[in-house]
Specification:
Hypothetical protein af1432; 11 helices; 63% helix
Length: 185
């Protein structure tokens, strides 16, 4: 598995694997850029913009989705936890926590808003089962009380919308200075 020790490591990972498909109509990099752009347009703070940009970095680091034996409906690469573990040492919890919770936000929305499931992409529907499926009432209550609840829901909303073809977005390079400013000293 990949390790991330610097901003340059993040850029190298996206340069080497970001242009690969991951089950959606867009590449991982296109999806990430769209998600961050949507967060910026919504007025999200800098940490949530970078969380939106890097929320699926765990997919790139785990590098299992290209494996023909990987079944999205059964196998879970645990990308939200992998991504949060990679990002936390660099950026701290304001970036890593929404990353760690964006799958839980999908599960919660599918549970409390049944029509939300119908609006998901086919890939998101397929992965839901492997990611734990619908939540129990107790799991929903615990998530609703989590201090990162709203930020995770915001990220989840942008994640769902960031799957369009040929959207004009700022480049990955345009986020470098912001990432540098947010790195823990």
């Amino acid at each position: 598995m990949t390790t991330i020790n610097s901003i340059d490591d993040i850029f190298s990972l996206y340069e080497s694997k970001g242009n690969e498909a991951y089950g959606e109509r867009v590449t991982s990099l296109e999806h990430s850029l769209q998600c961050a752009h949507l967060a910026q347009k919504a007025g999200a703070d800098d940490e949530l913009v970078i969380a939106s940009l890097l929320h699926d970095i765990g997919h790139l680091a785990a590098d299992v989705q290209g494996n023909e034996r990987f079944d999205m409906e059964v196998d879970d690469d645990d990308h939200e936890a992998v991504g949060a573990r990679l990002l936390s040492p660099l950026f701290g919890p304001k970036v890593s926590q929404p990353v760690s919770l964006h799958v839980t936000a999908k599960r919660w929305r599918c549970t409390v808003e049944p029509s939300y499931h119908d609006e998901l992409s086919d890939t998101s529907k397929a992965t839901l089962k492997a990611q734990g499926g619908l939540m129990s009432d107790e799991e929903c209550r615990r998530f609703e009380q989590h201090p990162g609840f709203q930020r995770a829901l915001d990220l989840r909303s942008w994640d769902d919308l960031a799957k369009e073809m040929e959207v004009d977005c700022p480049s990955l390079e345009s986020y470098r200075d912001l990432m540098i400013r947010l790195v823990r000293s």
